[in-house]
Amino acid sequence: MNRGEIMELESIVSILQSHTPKILGSEKFSKYAVMVPLIKKEDGIHVLLEVRSLELRRQPGEICFPGGRIDAQDIDEKDAAIRETVEELGINKEQILNIHPLDYMISPFGMIIYPFVGYIINPKRIVPNPSEVGEIFTVPLSFFIHNEPEIYNIEFRAEPEVNFPFDLIVGGENYNWRTRGIEEYFYRYQGKVIWGLTARILSHFIEVIR
Fold it and tell me: Using one digit for the tens of pLDDT, what is the confidence trace for 78-121?
């Protein structure tokens, strides 16, 4: 190995030593933070949920947690979750205590979701933002502890674009593409259906506290 090759190897090693691993391609992902709000009622701890305003273009009328896209001005994911909760529930950030992270999630649609759990004091002061929130309601935490979610599978099949270079892969047009699937979670509570990422986060939360 000559001096030039040694210098090249040293340069590569130096670069690798300073590299912090992350999820490959994550710089292109949309990043969101959500809050699982807990409140105390007469019969114990409840989970607070929102029904999205029917005026919203994306997922109107669906049930979700306070949350949204992480903005450049947010200090970190936790700060974004607090900001969104304050904006949507019309409360002060001092009303949100004991904020702790759950596992973050990567959706198959290019999103990373950072969920947090927080305890809201003085819930009577909540004034939902009507431009984003149609209504709020609560579900006893015990309901989720004692009721498993319904789980259904959705399969996605590969559809290569018209000019896909089949001649470059073994098998060509007969290549055996792997079917990709996701699990969708559902909870039913008093006529309301909690599903999708919201239900998945709830299920994970219950797994953690169990």
Answer: 999 999 999 999 999 999 999 999 999 988 778 899 999 999 99
Pairing state between β 180-189 and 192-195: antiparallel
User: Taking the C-alpha atoms of 201, 183, 54 and 74 in order, what is their torsion angle to the nearest 10 degrees?
Assistant: 40
From 134, 105, 132, 119, select the one nearest 197 (Cα to Cα). Answer: 105
Q: What are phi and psi of 14, to 5 degrees?
A: -60, -45
Which parts of the chain are beta strand (E)? 30-41, 44-52, 63-64, 67-69, 96-101, 105-107, 111-120, 133-140, 150-156, 180-189, 192-195
Report yes or no: 205 and 185 within 8 Å, Cβ to Cβ. Answer: no
pTM of the model: 0.84
